Amino acid sequence: MTKPRKRPEELRSHLWFGVDNLRSFGHRSRASQMGLQRADYQGKPLIAIINTWSDINPCHSHFRQRAEEVKRGIWQAGGFPVEMPAITLSEPFQKPTTMLYRNLLAMETEELLRSYPADGCVLMGGCDKTTPALIMGATSMNLPAIFLPAGPMLRGNWAGNTLGSGSDTWKYWAELRAGNITDGDWREIEDGIARSPGHCMTMGTASTMTSAAEALGLTLSGAASIPAADSRHAHMATGTGRRIVEMVWEDLRPRDILGAASFDNAVTTELALGGSTNAIVHLIAMAGRAGVALDLDRFDAIARKTPLLANLRPAGKYLMEDFYYAGGLRALLAQLGPRLDLAARTVNGTTLGEDIASAKVFNDDVIRSPGKALQEKDGLAVLRGNLAPDGAVIKPAAAEARLLKHAGKAVVFRDYNDMAARIDDPALAVDKDSVLVLQNGGPLGGPGMPEWGQLPIPKKLLKEGVRDMLRISDARMSGTSYGACVLHVAPESFIGGPLALVKDGDLVSLDVDARRLDLKITDAEMEKRRAAWKAPEAKFERGFGALFSRHISQADKGCDFDFLEGTAATADPEIH
Ligand code: FES
Known about the structure:
By secondary structure, the chain is α/β, with parallel strands linked by helices. The protein has helices at 14-17, 22-33, 38-41, 63-76, 102-115, 130-141, 167-177, 183-192, 205-215, 231-250, 254-257, 260-273, 278-290, 296-303, 320-325, 328-336, 352-355, 416-422, 459-463, 523-532, 543-551; strands at residues 46-51, 80-85, 120-125, 145-149, 156-158, 161-163, 381-385, 388-394, 405-413, 435-438, 470-473, 485-486, 507-511, 516-519. Helix content is 35%, strand content 12%. The relative contact order is 0.10.
């Protein structure tokens, strides 16, 4: 439904700059202090540019320049740009995991927009958790908002070999340990695997989430696939600046765009891309902020009918740069056609169908048609059973087929350190049919649900040629990882979920077709163990960690804070 066009005196920023009182005198005189004149801002939409640039985030190293390009677009369209730095979540450097801080960036985004005179905002993110965090905060504030994806970095290169983020790090680390490459080779790979600004260029969490943002209708059409170093990325930034000014006049807000259909579109897209399992947690949390009830069963239902069309690592062969040259996300969405709700609205003031009407595939090995899908369906499966009453997830295609229906004896690690200390111990009682169980890797136990879910195969089994085993945890897994890894087990072991009650030697059974994950002990034995279970000590006494511990929800609910969920209105501040 089209709303009446806003008038300048209806702008939120008018309350700061346009009225005539003592406070507005203060706001204008301080603007003047910064060299601004009334003509620079009066009657113009004030656009907050939420910029997650930082010296410590290589994926956003171009964001200082891109912010200038966004500003150029905002000035061109008659807006007033104000850059607002926000905490960066730098996947390689922030410990213990960026997931601990996703909700902090979401809160910061929401409160920056609320407490300052923003009429609309440009959200600059891309490195894994920055995308969901910015969108969650902006959705809760519900001012006109547009997402500017950082774009993938260029393909890695070493000695004529193409290198992909994440996956080739592990591959060549194994080659080094096996003595197949030298220390000198390894150092050259270090310099060649990430050779331009931009986020990881495999279909890891970053590419998954920026593509999901586009499928949700929150970016300019085609924005998510443009490599960060391409001049067209700068063009896109300026276009994003121009568009947000119009969105303010149109009063087009996130909750006008984000409905059940757009989240179904994002889930379908993520599955067609072979995206990261991390998207499940993020999309559920994002939907919660928009008032859309998205649950694990919806992911399972969509997975049963969505083909894998993108031939991208880790599921396939190519990288994001190839994907862009092959037509990018628009071309993939066009291949999905009727599997999407093409009537869903987008920030462009159009429908998704209109946005992709002219899209073309230029390389049909990279972007497949449904008739030539890499896999017909089941990009992920949601499991339940007495070991995961609230659900767990697995990527069946990432696992050796023999493990999709499997029962084996548990080898239990009580936490990551325990696992690291014993996994390669020659005396560890483990064989290829064992089930590796990691406890205390969940939202509270990690803390922050780190990417520990791809437990290493014990060295002695590697030597025997074993490459995959059934592994179960309440942790997440990197979007670039592979293997028979059951992840996101809920409720988590740290709060006494059944995963905490598994003992060495217990029989654990997985049946992906039946969507079951069970611990083969009697109910009476389960109750006995539950009664004897003692809660671990709290991880944090004070600070953000204590807030996190008190309010974080479980994986199946998206790991949002309970007081941030939902769509209840929070009043704008009074200006006194
Ligand atoms: Fe930033 Fe991978 S490290 S996206």
